[in-house]
Design a protein that fits this description.
Shape: globular
Number of domains: 1
Radius of gyration: 15 Å
CATH superfamily: Jelly Rolls
Helix content: 10-25%
CATH topology: Jelly Rolls
CATH architecture: Sandwich
Number of strands: 11
Low-confidence stretches: none
């Protein structure tokens, strides 16, 4: 089940909720869109990009039209991926993007860490969760030491995912994805 945990910058837990409406409203207060989508059909984890996009066609088309996305892809990672540690480390440091970051979790889970002010909003996203992080929001992402997720990624700029790292070590003070899933 999805959750939202709010920490201070020292890593002290301030709030914790698993209630969808509370998560949605709390994230909206910092400009983040959080939705739950329904699948048109159940998918096996081995489903390819075309099958995934077809299953979520109505929602994907609505979002593409609303935000004029230029490209969409499907990314997936499993615990047996040979570069899982390298890929995980790419996203673990706080960074920003000039574009907003939009993901829909088709399967599995991953954790977004949002740092728009003096708090860190930790969002455990699971199957069915859609999240849109505003441009220039300090954040990072953790898929855990044994990653298992499949997500649709939406891009409005041709370059796709381009990170501007802040140099902050704050991500070392907040619980990891592996710790968050145990809350």
């Amino acid at each position: 089940m999805s959750l939202l945990a709010v920490y201070d910058e020292l890593g002290n837990l301030l709030e914790l909720t698993r209630d969808y409406e509370e998560i949605k409203n709390r994230l909206a207060s910092i400009g983040v869109v959080f939705e739950r989508w329904q699948a048109n059909k159940e998918l096996d984890f081995s489903a390819g990009q075309e099958e995934v996009l077809s299953a979520y066609r109505d929602d994907v088309e609505r979002i593409v039209k609303e935000f004029d996305f230029k490209s969409i892809d499907v990314v997936s990672l499993t615990p047996d991926h040979p570069k899982k540690e390298e890929l995980r480390n790419m996203f673990l440091s706080e960074h920003t993007h000039s574009d907003f970051e939009v993901r829909f979790f088709v399967d599995g889970s991953g954790t977004f860490y949002l740092h728009p002010d003096d708090k860190v909003y930790v969002v455990l996203c699971e199957k069915g969760d859609f999240i849109s992080v505003p441009a220039n929001t300090r954040h990072w992402f953790d898929m855990g030491t044994q990653p298992f997720f499949k997500a649709i990624r939406f891009f409005s700029i041709p370059d796709g995912w381009v990170a501007n790292f802040t140099g902050s070590d704050i991500s070392t003070r907040i619980p990891s994805h592996d710790q968050i899933v145990r809350l």
